[in-house]
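Let's practice the habit of predicting before peeking. Look at the sequence and jot down your guess about where helices and strands might fall. Then scroll down.
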Amino acid sequence: MEKLPDELQQKILNYAMIRDTPFCIEECISVAEKSAKDSKRHGDDCADAALQLLLSKVEPTQVSHLLDWRIVNGTCRRFRNLGKEAFFSQKVFGMSAEFAHKLRKLEVKNLSVDDQRTALKYICSIIFFEAVTNTASSFLTLPRRISAFPRLKRLDHMIGWPNVFSARFIITQLEYRKEAYHGFIEALGCIGVPVDRLEIGIIHCEDRAGDPDTGYNDRVMRADVYPLLRFKGSLLAKQKARMH
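Done guessing? Here is the structure:
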């Protein structure tokens, strides 16, 4: 690998980092923090022991992502730089709005500032988890939130009841993804979301009875979120007109 040109190495690494499931980075970091503490509590400061404990505790679909991260961090500097670019650019990242805000301000614990900058620079696909009770306010702050991800190409919103967004639950909900309807995308564009370069989807999670909660969530989107986006869009258009 070391003798291959960077361009070819990057293509190989890009292919190697692709997985079928999203990387729920926020949950994995939280589990990693607890695993490190548990490892020290048992008198074992070995990084491998902490890693094994972490891998035993995370949702199984997340293990491959964590092993990928270990591989790219355990190599020479040149390979590590190419590997991290591939890691962040080829995976789908699941995160809350709060985590994205911390990442934008380089305040994520257990992730170096350099790695946070690399994440912001290269991440191309995100699933935001939105509690249905906070959906309207969350969409209004979307332009600022995604402005930190210059290469973002695909943006999904998973909407459900609070406190349900574990990695295990998230994986089961991906089949309910639908393309956002045209009027909604147009309204997002009016408040500053760069819709011309984004593929935007909505995932309505199952309700507490285990059925896709499309009825209630869709009413929230159309009756609350959409009118609010249109209203803010009209205010921004008037402000822009006055400036000219």
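How did you do? DSSP finds twelve helices and five strands in the chain.
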